[in-house]
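Hi X.,

You mentioned you wanted examples for the new student's onboarding notes, showing what a folding record looks like when two proteins sit in one file. Here is a clean example. The first protein comes first, with its sequence line followed by its C-alpha coordinates.
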Amino acid sequence: MIVIDDLKDKCVLVTGASSGIGAAVSRALAAQGARLALHWHANAAGARAVAADVEAAGRRPAVLLQGDLGARGTARRLVEEAMRSLQGLDILVNCAGALVSRRPVLEADDAFVDAVFDLNARAVLGTCQAAAVPMKTRGGGSIINVGSIAGLDGGGPGAGIYGASKAWVHNLSRHLAREFAADHIRVNTVAPGVVQTPFHHATPPERMEAMRRSVHLGRIGTTDDCVGAFLFLASQQLSGYITGQIIHVNGGQVMP
Protein backbone atom coordinates (compact mmCIF):
# COMPACT_ATOMS: atom_id res chain seq x y z
CA MET A 1 0.00 0.00 0.00
CA ILE A 2 1.21 3.47 -0.86
CA VAL A 3 1.39 5.69 2.23
CA ILE A 4 0.31 9.31 1.84
CA ASP A 5 1.74 10.88 4.97
CA ASP A 6 -0.28 14.07 5.04
CA LEU A 7 -3.65 12.29 5.20
CA LYS A 8 -2.91 10.84 8.64
CA ASP A 9 -5.21 12.32 11.30
CA LYS A 10 -7.08 14.49 8.80
CA CYS A 11 -10.75 14.99 9.67
CA VAL A 12 -12.92 13.81 6.78
CA LEU A 13 -16.64 13.74 6.06
CA VAL A 14 -17.73 11.35 3.29
CA THR A 15 -21.34 11.57 2.18
CA GLY A 16 -22.95 8.51 0.62
CA ALA A 17 -20.41 6.31 2.41
CA SER A 18 -22.53 3.17 2.88
CA SER A 19 -21.94 1.67 -0.57
CA GLY A 20 -20.33 2.12 -3.96
CA ILE A 21 -17.64 4.73 -4.51
CA GLY A 22 -18.28 6.39 -1.14
CA ALA A 23 -17.61 3.14 0.71
CA ALA A 24 -14.43 2.43 -1.26
CA VAL A 25 -13.09 5.93 -0.71
CA SER A 26 -13.89 5.74 3.01
CA ARG A 27 -11.95 2.50 3.39
CA ALA A 28 -9.00 3.93 1.46
CA LEU A 29 -8.88 7.10 3.56
CA ALA A 30 -9.06 5.05 6.75
CA ALA A 31 -6.09 3.00 5.56
CA GLN A 32 -4.16 6.27 5.33
CA GLY A 33 -4.98 7.09 8.96
CA ALA A 34 -7.70 9.68 8.40
CA ARG A 35 -10.43 10.28 10.98
CA LEU A 36 -13.79 9.63 9.36
CA ALA A 37 -17.39 10.72 9.63
CA LEU A 38 -19.50 8.48 7.39
CA HIS A 39 -22.87 9.66 6.15
CA TRP A 40 -25.64 7.26 5.19
CA HIS A 41 -29.31 7.60 4.39
CA ALA A 42 -31.19 4.28 4.11
CA ASN A 43 -28.47 1.60 4.09
CA ALA A 44 -27.73 1.15 7.79
CA ALA A 45 -26.19 -2.29 7.33
CA GLY A 46 -23.83 -0.99 4.65
CA ALA A 47 -22.77 1.93 6.83
CA ARG A 48 -22.06 -0.35 9.78
CA ALA A 49 -20.02 -2.66 7.55
CA VAL A 50 -17.86 0.19 6.30
CA ALA A 51 -17.40 1.46 9.86
CA ALA A 52 -16.35 -2.02 10.95
CA ASP A 53 -13.77 -2.16 8.15
CA VAL A 54 -12.41 1.22 9.25
CA GLU A 55 -12.01 0.01 12.82
CA ALA A 56 -10.52 -3.32 11.71
CA ALA A 57 -7.80 -1.42 9.89
CA GLY A 58 -6.53 -0.36 13.31
CA ARG A 59 -7.77 3.20 13.06
CA ARG A 60 -10.14 5.16 15.25
CA PRO A 61 -13.81 4.15 15.10
CA ALA A 62 -15.73 6.05 12.45
CA VAL A 63 -18.56 8.43 13.30
CA LEU A 64 -21.84 7.40 11.64
CA LEU A 65 -24.21 10.19 10.59
CA GLN A 66 -27.64 9.47 9.16
CA GLY A 67 -29.68 11.86 7.04
CA ASP A 68 -31.65 12.38 3.85
CA LEU A 69 -29.58 14.83 1.82
CA GLY A 70 -32.57 15.35 -0.43
CA ALA A 71 -34.25 17.19 2.46
CA ARG A 72 -33.48 20.87 2.89
CA GLY A 73 -31.24 21.61 5.86
CA THR A 74 -29.71 18.15 6.14
CA ALA A 75 -26.46 19.10 4.39
CA ARG A 76 -25.58 21.84 6.88
CA ARG A 77 -26.58 19.67 9.84
CA LEU A 78 -24.34 16.81 8.72
CA VAL A 79 -21.33 19.06 8.33
CA GLU A 80 -21.91 20.60 11.75
CA GLU A 81 -22.28 17.17 13.38
CA ALA A 82 -19.16 15.88 11.63
CA MET A 83 -17.17 18.91 12.74
CA ARG A 84 -18.26 18.51 16.37
CA SER A 85 -17.62 14.76 16.41
CA LEU A 86 -14.22 14.95 14.72
CA GLN A 87 -13.26 18.25 16.37
CA GLY A 88 -12.56 19.80 13.02
CA LEU A 89 -12.95 19.29 9.28
CA ASP A 90 -10.17 19.16 6.70
CA ILE A 91 -11.64 17.21 3.80
CA LEU A 92 -15.17 16.90 2.42
CA VAL A 93 -16.01 14.16 -0.10
CA ASN A 94 -19.46 14.53 -1.65
CA CYS A 95 -20.33 11.04 -2.92
CA ALA A 96 -24.06 10.99 -2.14
CA GLY A 97 -26.24 11.05 -5.24
CA ALA A 98 -28.74 9.07 -7.23
CA LEU A 99 -30.50 8.85 -10.56
CA VAL A 100 -33.81 8.71 -8.58
CA SER A 101 -35.38 6.98 -11.61
CA ARG A 102 -35.01 6.86 -15.37
CA ARG A 103 -37.57 9.21 -16.86
CA PRO A 104 -37.78 10.92 -20.26
CA VAL A 105 -37.55 14.70 -20.01
CA LEU A 106 -41.13 15.12 -21.25
CA GLU A 107 -42.27 13.07 -18.25
CA ALA A 108 -40.16 14.98 -15.72
CA ASP A 109 -42.62 16.93 -13.59
CA ASP A 110 -41.63 19.54 -11.01
CA ALA A 111 -41.58 17.06 -8.14
CA PHE A 112 -39.19 14.76 -10.00
CA VAL A 113 -36.86 17.57 -11.02
CA ASP A 114 -36.82 18.85 -7.43
CA ALA A 115 -36.00 15.39 -6.11
CA VAL A 116 -33.05 14.99 -8.51
CA PHE A 117 -31.66 18.48 -7.97
CA ASP A 118 -32.22 18.54 -4.20
CA LEU A 119 -30.03 15.45 -3.78
CA ASN A 120 -27.45 15.81 -6.53
CA ALA A 121 -27.04 19.58 -6.67
CA ARG A 122 -28.48 21.55 -3.77
CA ALA A 123 -27.09 19.17 -1.15
CA VAL A 124 -23.60 19.56 -2.65
CA LEU A 125 -23.92 23.33 -2.44
CA GLY A 126 -25.11 23.05 1.16
CA THR A 127 -22.25 20.86 2.34
CA CYS A 128 -19.68 23.03 0.54
CA GLN A 129 -21.08 26.19 2.11
CA ALA A 130 -21.09 24.65 5.58
CA ALA A 131 -17.63 23.06 5.23
CA ALA A 132 -15.90 26.23 4.08
CA VAL A 133 -16.23 27.85 7.51
CA PRO A 134 -14.38 25.24 9.61
CA MET A 135 -11.84 24.66 6.84
CA LYS A 136 -11.04 28.37 6.77
CA THR A 137 -10.36 28.38 10.51
CA ARG A 138 -7.92 25.46 10.03
CA GLY A 139 -5.98 27.25 7.30
CA GLY A 140 -7.52 25.46 4.31
CA GLY A 141 -8.84 22.14 3.15
CA SER A 142 -9.94 20.03 0.23
CA ILE A 143 -13.45 19.57 -1.15
CA ILE A 144 -13.98 16.76 -3.64
CA ASN A 145 -17.32 16.63 -5.40
CA VAL A 146 -18.53 13.72 -7.48
CA GLY A 147 -19.66 14.62 -10.97
CA SER A 148 -20.39 12.18 -13.75
CA ILE A 149 -19.76 11.38 -17.37
CA ALA A 150 -23.48 12.25 -17.69
CA GLY A 151 -22.55 15.83 -16.85
CA LEU A 152 -20.50 15.90 -20.05
CA ASP A 153 -22.56 13.94 -22.56
CA GLY A 154 -26.06 14.71 -21.26
CA GLY A 155 -26.74 11.24 -19.84
CA GLY A 156 -28.15 8.05 -21.29
CA PRO A 157 -31.81 7.19 -21.87
CA GLY A 158 -33.96 8.58 -19.08
CA ALA A 159 -31.02 10.27 -17.35
CA GLY A 160 -31.27 13.77 -18.79
CA ILE A 161 -32.28 15.50 -15.56
CA TYR A 162 -29.61 13.59 -13.64
CA GLY A 163 -27.02 14.60 -16.25
CA ALA A 164 -28.08 18.23 -15.91
CA SER A 165 -27.69 18.07 -12.14
CA LYS A 166 -24.15 16.70 -12.52
CA ALA A 167 -23.23 19.40 -15.05
CA TRP A 168 -24.42 21.84 -12.39
CA VAL A 169 -21.99 20.24 -9.92
CA HIS A 170 -19.13 20.52 -12.41
CA ASN A 171 -19.67 24.25 -12.86
CA LEU A 172 -20.38 24.90 -9.18
CA SER A 173 -17.06 23.25 -8.32
CA ARG A 174 -15.19 25.47 -10.77
CA HIS A 175 -16.75 28.58 -9.28
CA LEU A 176 -16.15 27.52 -5.68
CA ALA A 177 -12.51 26.82 -6.54
CA ARG A 178 -12.15 30.50 -7.44
CA GLU A 179 -14.20 31.81 -4.53
CA PHE A 180 -12.52 29.66 -1.85
CA ALA A 181 -8.95 29.91 -3.14
CA ALA A 182 -8.06 32.90 -0.96
CA ASP A 183 -8.79 30.74 2.09
CA HIS A 184 -6.61 27.89 0.74
CA ILE A 185 -9.60 25.61 0.21
CA ARG A 186 -9.21 23.56 -2.95
CA VAL A 187 -12.32 22.36 -4.78
CA ASN A 188 -12.11 19.64 -7.41
CA THR A 189 -14.38 17.07 -9.03
CA VAL A 190 -14.07 13.38 -9.83
CA ALA A 191 -16.33 12.45 -12.76
CA PRO A 192 -16.74 8.66 -12.98
CA GLY A 193 -17.92 6.91 -16.09
CA VAL A 194 -19.70 3.57 -15.97
CA VAL A 195 -18.79 2.00 -12.64
CA GLN A 196 -20.26 -1.22 -11.24
CA THR A 197 -22.10 0.02 -8.15
CA PRO A 198 -25.65 -0.25 -6.76
CA PHE A 199 -26.38 2.80 -8.93
CA HIS A 200 -26.58 0.43 -11.91
CA HIS A 201 -28.52 -2.43 -10.28
CA ALA A 202 -31.63 -1.47 -12.28
CA THR A 203 -29.79 -0.77 -15.53
CA PRO A 204 -30.81 -3.35 -18.18
CA PRO A 205 -28.01 -5.81 -19.08
CA GLU A 206 -28.17 -4.81 -22.73
CA ARG A 207 -27.62 -1.17 -21.76
CA MET A 208 -24.63 -2.12 -19.59
CA GLU A 209 -23.16 -4.12 -22.47
CA ALA A 210 -23.61 -1.19 -24.85
CA MET A 211 -21.79 1.07 -22.42
CA ARG A 212 -19.01 -1.48 -21.95
CA ARG A 213 -18.45 -1.56 -25.70
CA SER A 214 -18.07 2.22 -25.74
CA VAL A 215 -15.25 2.13 -23.16
CA HIS A 216 -11.85 2.09 -24.87
CA LEU A 217 -10.25 0.08 -22.06
CA GLY A 218 -12.88 -2.57 -22.76
CA ARG A 219 -14.49 -3.04 -19.37
CA ILE A 220 -16.87 -1.55 -16.83
CA GLY A 221 -15.07 0.34 -14.08
CA THR A 222 -14.87 -0.68 -10.42
CA THR A 223 -15.02 1.41 -7.28
CA ASP A 224 -11.33 0.69 -6.70
CA ASP A 225 -10.58 2.28 -10.08
CA CYS A 226 -11.90 5.54 -8.66
CA VAL A 227 -10.12 5.58 -5.31
CA GLY A 228 -6.75 6.89 -6.49
CA ALA A 229 -8.24 10.11 -7.86
CA PHE A 230 -9.83 10.89 -4.48
CA LEU A 231 -6.68 10.18 -2.49
CA PHE A 232 -4.68 12.34 -4.89
CA LEU A 233 -7.06 15.28 -4.60
CA ALA A 234 -7.40 14.93 -0.83
CA SER A 235 -3.65 15.20 -0.30
CA GLN A 236 -2.08 18.65 -0.11
CA GLN A 237 1.26 16.97 -0.62
CA LEU A 238 0.22 15.45 -3.96
CA SER A 239 -2.20 18.04 -5.36
CA GLY A 240 -1.68 21.25 -3.41
CA TYR A 241 -1.48 23.32 -6.61
CA ILE A 242 -4.56 21.77 -8.20
CA THR A 243 -8.01 23.31 -7.88
CA GLY A 244 -11.04 23.78 -10.10
CA GLN A 245 -10.29 20.61 -12.06
CA ILE A 246 -12.34 17.62 -13.17
CA ILE A 247 -10.63 14.24 -13.16
CA HIS A 248 -12.43 11.90 -15.53
CA VAL A 249 -12.34 8.23 -14.51
CA ASN A 250 -14.09 6.54 -17.42
CA GLY A 251 -11.70 4.18 -19.19
CA GLY A 252 -11.45 6.54 -22.15
CA GLN A 253 -15.18 6.42 -22.87
CA VAL A 254 -15.21 10.22 -23.12
CA MET A 255 -12.04 12.29 -23.60
CA PRO A 256 -12.92 15.98 -23.09
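Then the second protein repeats the pattern, sequence line and then C-alpha coordinates:
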Amino acid sequence: MTKLLYHEDSYLNEFQATVTGVMDSGIVLDQTAFYPGGGGQPNDVGVMRIGGLEFNVSKVSKKDGVIIHEVQGSPPLVGDTVTGVIDWDRRHKLMRTHTSLHILCGVIWRDYGAHVTGGNMEPLAARMDFEFENMTAEFAEEVEVTVNKEIAADHPISARVLPRDEAMAIPDLIRTKINLLPEGISEVRVLEIHGLDLQADGGTHVASTKEVGRIRIVGHESKGRINKRLRIQIEPA
Protein backbone atom coordinates (compact mmCIF):
# COMPACT_ATOMS: atom_id res chain seq x y z
CA MET A 1 0.00 0.00 0.00
CA THR A 2 1.45 3.34 -1.07
CA LYS A 3 1.47 6.04 1.59
CA LEU A 4 -0.35 9.11 0.25
CA LEU A 5 1.90 12.01 1.15
CA TYR A 6 -0.26 14.48 -0.79
CA HIS A 7 -3.05 13.89 1.73
CA GLU A 8 -0.72 14.68 4.63
CA ASP A 9 0.78 17.83 3.09
CA SER A 10 -0.48 19.35 -0.17
CA TYR A 11 2.56 21.66 -0.19
CA LEU A 12 5.11 18.83 -0.24
CA ASN A 13 6.76 19.03 -3.65
CA GLU A 14 9.87 16.87 -3.16
CA PHE A 15 10.16 13.52 -1.39
CA GLN A 16 12.16 10.30 -1.19
CA ALA A 17 10.64 6.87 -1.73
CA THR A 18 11.54 3.25 -2.40
CA VAL A 19 10.50 1.46 -5.58
CA THR A 20 8.28 -1.47 -4.57
CA GLY A 21 7.10 -2.59 -8.00
CA VAL A 22 7.97 -2.28 -11.69
CA MET A 23 5.49 -3.07 -14.46
CA ASP A 24 5.00 -2.28 -18.12
CA SER A 25 2.87 0.75 -17.32
CA GLY A 26 5.22 2.26 -14.74
CA ILE A 27 6.57 1.96 -11.21
CA VAL A 28 5.02 1.71 -7.75
CA LEU A 29 6.49 3.47 -4.70
CA ASP A 30 6.14 2.90 -0.98
CA GLN A 31 5.02 6.54 -0.67
CA THR A 32 4.26 9.36 -3.06
CA ALA A 33 3.40 13.04 -3.20
CA PHE A 34 2.25 12.74 -6.83
CA TYR A 35 -1.54 13.11 -7.00
CA PRO A 36 -2.92 10.39 -9.32
CA GLY A 37 -5.89 12.39 -10.52
CA GLY A 38 -9.55 12.10 -9.61
CA GLY A 39 -12.59 14.20 -8.78
CA GLY A 40 -11.96 16.33 -11.85
CA GLN A 41 -8.42 17.24 -10.77
CA PRO A 42 -5.70 16.12 -13.24
CA ASN A 43 -2.74 14.04 -12.11
CA ASP A 44 0.58 15.62 -11.17
CA VAL A 45 3.63 15.48 -13.40
CA GLY A 46 7.30 16.02 -12.65
CA VAL A 47 10.54 14.04 -12.44
CA MET A 48 12.18 11.24 -10.46
CA ARG A 49 15.90 11.26 -9.73
CA ILE A 50 18.22 8.42 -8.83
CA GLY A 51 21.93 9.03 -8.71
CA GLY A 52 22.77 11.18 -11.71
CA LEU A 53 19.76 9.99 -13.70
CA GLU A 54 16.48 11.82 -14.11
CA PHE A 55 13.21 10.33 -15.38
CA ASN A 56 10.23 12.39 -16.51
CA VAL A 57 7.00 11.42 -14.78
CA SER A 58 4.49 11.92 -17.57
CA LYS A 59 1.40 10.43 -15.91
CA VAL A 60 0.27 9.15 -12.53
CA SER A 61 -2.85 7.03 -12.16
CA LYS A 62 -4.59 4.70 -9.74
CA LYS A 63 -5.61 1.25 -10.97
CA ASP A 64 -7.20 -1.30 -8.66
CA GLY A 65 -6.01 0.72 -5.70
CA VAL A 66 -2.39 0.86 -6.91
CA ILE A 67 -0.76 4.19 -7.79
CA ILE A 68 1.35 3.83 -10.93
CA HIS A 69 3.95 6.40 -11.99
CA GLU A 70 4.65 6.32 -15.71
CA VAL A 71 8.28 7.26 -16.37
CA GLN A 72 10.09 7.86 -19.63
CA GLY A 73 13.16 5.72 -20.30
CA SER A 74 14.38 2.60 -18.52
CA PRO A 75 12.69 2.57 -15.10
CA PRO A 76 14.47 2.21 -11.74
CA LEU A 77 14.65 -1.23 -10.14
CA VAL A 78 12.73 -2.62 -7.19
CA GLY A 79 14.52 -1.53 -4.03
CA ASP A 80 15.98 1.63 -5.55
CA THR A 81 15.59 4.88 -3.62
CA VAL A 82 14.29 7.70 -5.78
CA THR A 83 13.68 11.40 -5.24
CA GLY A 84 10.36 12.58 -6.63
CA VAL A 85 9.99 16.23 -7.63
CA ILE A 86 6.57 17.57 -8.56
CA ASP A 87 6.03 20.32 -11.11
CA TRP A 88 5.13 22.73 -8.34
CA ASP A 89 3.94 25.65 -10.44
CA ARG A 90 1.36 23.42 -12.13
CA ARG A 91 0.35 21.71 -8.85
CA HIS A 92 -0.15 24.97 -7.01
CA LYS A 93 -2.30 26.34 -9.83
CA LEU A 94 -4.41 23.18 -9.64
CA MET A 95 -4.70 23.53 -5.86
CA ARG A 96 -5.96 27.10 -6.25
CA THR A 97 -8.35 26.00 -8.99
CA HIS A 98 -9.72 23.03 -7.04
CA THR A 99 -10.29 25.15 -3.95
CA SER A 100 -12.05 27.79 -6.05
CA LEU A 101 -14.53 25.15 -7.23
CA HIS A 102 -15.27 24.19 -3.63
CA ILE A 103 -15.90 27.85 -2.80
CA LEU A 104 -18.17 28.16 -5.83
CA CYS A 105 -19.98 24.98 -4.86
CA GLY A 106 -20.32 26.15 -1.25
CA VAL A 107 -21.83 29.46 -2.31
CA ILE A 108 -24.24 27.86 -4.78
CA TRP A 109 -25.39 25.28 -2.22
CA ARG A 110 -25.73 27.77 0.64
CA ASP A 111 -27.51 30.47 -1.36
CA TYR A 112 -29.45 28.46 -3.96
CA GLY A 113 -29.56 24.83 -2.78
CA ALA A 114 -28.42 23.43 -6.15
CA HIS A 115 -26.58 20.10 -6.53
CA VAL A 116 -23.43 19.70 -8.62
CA THR A 117 -23.98 17.60 -11.75
CA GLY A 118 -20.43 17.66 -13.15
CA GLY A 119 -17.13 19.49 -13.29
CA ASN A 120 -13.59 19.53 -14.58
CA MET A 121 -10.47 21.63 -14.27
CA GLU A 122 -7.08 22.50 -15.67
CA PRO A 123 -4.57 24.90 -14.15
CA LEU A 124 -6.37 28.21 -13.48
CA ALA A 125 -9.48 27.32 -15.52
CA ALA A 126 -12.47 25.16 -14.70
CA ARG A 127 -16.14 24.49 -15.25
CA MET A 128 -18.86 23.27 -12.93
CA ASP A 129 -22.39 22.15 -13.76
CA PHE A 130 -25.36 22.65 -11.46
CA GLU A 131 -28.95 21.51 -11.24
CA PHE A 132 -30.58 24.76 -12.36
CA GLU A 133 -33.49 25.29 -14.73
CA ASN A 134 -32.46 28.84 -15.60
CA MET A 135 -29.21 30.80 -15.57
CA THR A 136 -28.63 34.38 -16.68
CA ALA A 137 -25.67 36.73 -17.08
CA GLU A 138 -26.97 38.69 -14.08
CA PHE A 139 -26.99 35.53 -11.99
CA ALA A 140 -23.40 34.71 -13.02
CA GLU A 141 -22.28 38.23 -12.06
CA GLU A 142 -24.01 37.93 -8.69
CA VAL A 143 -22.30 34.60 -8.00
CA GLU A 144 -18.90 35.99 -9.03
CA VAL A 145 -19.21 38.85 -6.53
CA THR A 146 -20.27 36.53 -3.71
CA VAL A 147 -17.53 33.99 -4.39
CA ASN A 148 -14.84 36.67 -4.40
CA LYS A 149 -16.14 38.01 -1.08
CA GLU A 150 -15.72 34.52 0.40
CA ILE A 151 -12.21 34.25 -1.07
CA ALA A 152 -11.24 37.61 0.44
CA ALA A 153 -12.64 36.52 3.83
CA ASP A 154 -9.55 34.29 4.18
CA HIS A 155 -11.38 31.23 5.51
CA PRO A 156 -8.92 28.57 6.76
CA ILE A 157 -9.11 25.18 5.04
CA SER A 158 -8.40 21.80 6.60
CA ALA A 159 -8.94 18.11 5.90
CA ARG A 160 -9.57 15.11 8.11
CA VAL A 161 -10.40 11.44 7.66
CA LEU A 162 -13.56 10.04 9.24
CA PRO A 163 -15.08 6.56 9.46
CA ARG A 164 -17.59 6.19 6.64
CA ASP A 165 -20.63 5.97 8.92
CA GLU A 166 -19.61 9.10 10.80
CA ALA A 167 -18.90 11.00 7.60
CA MET A 168 -22.16 10.00 5.93
CA ALA A 169 -24.07 11.21 8.99
CA ILE A 170 -22.97 14.77 8.17
CA PRO A 171 -25.87 16.55 6.41
CA ASP A 172 -25.18 17.51 2.78
CA LEU A 173 -21.66 16.06 2.77
CA ILE A 174 -22.16 14.83 -0.80
CA ARG A 175 -22.95 17.77 -3.09
CA THR A 176 -22.98 15.85 -6.35
CA LYS A 177 -26.35 14.76 -7.70
CA ILE A 178 -25.07 11.15 -7.65
CA ASN A 179 -23.09 9.79 -4.70
CA LEU A 180 -19.74 8.84 -6.25
CA LEU A 181 -18.21 7.30 -3.13
CA PRO A 182 -17.53 3.59 -3.75
CA GLU A 183 -19.36 1.30 -1.34
CA GLY A 184 -16.13 -0.43 -0.28
CA ILE A 185 -14.50 2.70 1.16
CA SER A 186 -14.46 2.48 4.96
CA GLU A 187 -12.97 5.93 5.58
CA VAL A 188 -13.86 9.25 3.99
CA ARG A 189 -11.58 12.26 3.67
CA VAL A 190 -13.50 15.44 4.41
CA LEU A 191 -12.41 18.91 3.33
CA GLU A 192 -13.68 21.89 5.30
CA ILE A 193 -13.61 25.53 4.28
CA HIS A 194 -14.33 26.82 7.75
CA GLY A 195 -17.43 28.95 7.87
CA LEU A 196 -18.51 28.06 4.34
CA ASP A 197 -18.31 24.47 3.12
CA LEU A 198 -17.82 20.84 4.15
CA GLN A 199 -17.51 18.10 1.53
CA ALA A 200 -16.03 14.68 0.89
CA ASP A 201 -12.91 15.19 -1.22
CA GLY A 202 -9.64 13.45 -2.10
CA GLY A 203 -7.78 16.21 -3.94
CA THR A 204 -5.16 18.81 -3.04
CA HIS A 205 -6.03 22.30 -1.83
CA VAL A 206 -4.53 25.54 -0.59
CA ALA A 207 -4.55 26.37 3.12
CA SER A 208 -6.90 29.37 2.98
CA THR A 209 -9.40 30.87 0.58
CA LYS A 210 -7.35 34.05 0.14
CA GLU A 211 -4.57 32.03 -1.49
CA VAL A 212 -6.90 31.24 -4.39
CA GLY A 213 -6.58 34.78 -5.72
CA ARG A 214 -9.68 35.96 -7.54
CA ILE A 215 -12.14 34.23 -9.84
CA ARG A 216 -13.88 35.48 -12.94
CA ILE A 217 -16.93 33.78 -14.36
CA VAL A 218 -16.13 33.84 -18.06
CA GLY A 219 -19.10 31.91 -19.39
CA HIS A 220 -22.43 30.30 -18.63
CA GLU A 221 -24.41 27.92 -20.78
CA SER A 222 -27.22 25.41 -20.76
CA LYS A 223 -26.30 21.73 -20.90
CA GLY A 224 -29.87 20.48 -20.56
CA ARG A 225 -33.26 21.34 -19.10
CA ILE A 226 -32.02 21.33 -15.50
CA ASN A 227 -28.27 21.33 -16.10
CA LYS A 228 -26.45 24.67 -16.34
CA ARG A 229 -22.71 25.31 -16.57
CA LEU A 230 -20.47 28.04 -15.16
CA ARG A 231 -16.95 28.50 -16.53
CA ILE A 232 -14.35 30.23 -14.38
CA GLN A 233 -10.80 31.52 -14.58
CA ILE A 234 -8.54 32.12 -11.61
CA GLU A 235 -6.41 35.26 -11.38
CA PRO A 236 -3.94 36.61 -8.79
CA ALA A 237 -5.46 38.54 -5.90
